[in-house]
Amino acid sequence: MKSTFADEIVDLLPNLRRYAFVLSRSLDVADDLVQQTCEKAFASRSSYAQGTNLSAWLIRIMRNTWIDRVRRDRTRGESVDIVDRPDAIFTDGAHDTETHLMLGNVASALQELPADQREIIMMICVEELSYKEAAAALGIPIGTVMSRLARARTTLAGKLDLN
Asked: What is the pTM of this model?
């Protein structure tokens, strides 16, 4: 029974995997390297001279693939698997965009408030002063701070359609 090109490659897979592991020192990378080698071998099987050493041809393809990968990785910089970085921060692009737009709308609405209301909002909500501290800073009663803040919040909610 005559073996096909594919059968011969399948028979050499354990040898290829061992060599790939020697090159990469990583089972995952070795498996990727074997797969890339097989893909390239099938894509260029017309250049394989029948009767020559298939194992040597495949190893040469693998070695060249590995060298290309090392060169590419060297210019790309360090690559870190996400599994190795549990502290990596994930962002939701849609949420970030929505937040950015909302903050822009709030900033515009704040600018439209009367100066006394804008001042109270900034002191209480941004600077995080207590009502007592804001009243002392402005020289007004705490009740006035509370009523201006309530009017400012109501006006902002109306401008931002949050009612």
From this structure: 0.47
